[in-house]
Amino acid sequence: MCRGCKRYAFEVIDWNGYDDEAKSAVLSRIERLNTQILENKLRIFSVPNLKAGLDRFHIPYDESLPPYCWLHNLLKKAHGRMESLEEYGVYALGNYAGMPLPQLCEIIENELLLLSEAHHARYFAPAIAAPKNRS
Prior knowledge:
By secondary structure, the protein is mainly alpha-helical. It has helices at 9-14, 20-39, 47-56, 67-78, 101-123, 125-129, and strands at residues 42-44, 90-92.
């Protein structure tokens, strides 16, 4: 799996051959996984502050995606330059409050990789491992 975009290797390799529907399905899966993980750890209380932070660091975001996807990009690309989440319209929930941002970002990335691997094992590995019908 690509650690940056979270697509599986075969998706990266075949990407240019995918039609719009297939590309959309891949991006929707990644969006759902990102949102699921981030919503359990962080709360966005100000979308305008989040947008301002993305603009400050020149990080593009797709307005058609949920703000948690934008937040994921911000954390990936700028967590080392951020002093506090609150400045960007975000606060950490429960056990994640007060955790150093680099540690929180590492937890998020590791969970995203684990969840993606589980998704692959459930939906793709059985199809790959299944013997082909030899008629």
